[in-house]
Amino acid sequence: MYAAHYAPLVRLAYVTTGSRPAAEDVVQEAFIEWYRRGATVREPVPYLRRAVVSRCTSWVRRRRLERRHAGVAEPAWTADSADAQAVRAALHRLNPRQRAAVFLRYYLDLPEAEIAEALGCRPGTVKSLLHRGLAAVKEELDAG
């Protein structure tokens, strides 16, 4: 279970947090929590996705609050190409739930029902998150 799902969950967490060490920590915490819950979790993969998204959202909120109080600007993304950098910057400007929805849909190719379960919302909310997220990314890329 761990070996099969660790890497995709870290990628999900990385897209949301923008930090590889934080992503690894978040995923480790999610697996620990799943292990502690044991038999009470009927479907571990959706549980782990939701735990990762929830922990990432909390992590991002804490970091923004810390930066705001410290007066530090948001970090810039680095990439090999200008196109990749523009896409990452546009994704970084999305809120964590939109970013997670876009990643789950277009990178992990999950259906809306599974994304809704991972995000703890209804499928209609997923459609809205995807629509608004993609519109924001398109607007950002068209402006640049």
Automatic annotation (TrEMBL):
One term of GO molecular function: sigma factor activity
Sequence ranges assigned to domain RNA polymerase sigma-70 region in this UniProt record: 1-64
Domain RNA polymerase sigma factor 70 region 4 type: 85-136
Gene Ontology process terms (BP): DNA-templated transcription initiation
Keywords associated with the record: DNA-binding, Sigma factor, Transcription, Transcription regulation
Coiled coil: none
Lineage: superkingdom: Bacteria
Keyword Transferase: no
InterPro entries found in the cross-reference section: RNA_pol_sigma-70-like, RNA_pol_sigma-70_dom, RNA_pol_sigma70_r2, RNA_pol_sigma70_r4_t2, RNA_pol_sigma_r2, RNA_pol_sigma_r3/r4-like, WH-like_DNA-bd_sf
The keyword Nucleotidyltransferase is annotated on this UniProt entry: no
Family, per entry: Belongs to the sigma-70 factor family. ECF subfamily.
Protein name: SigE family RNA polymerase sigma factor
Organism: Dactylosporangium sucinum
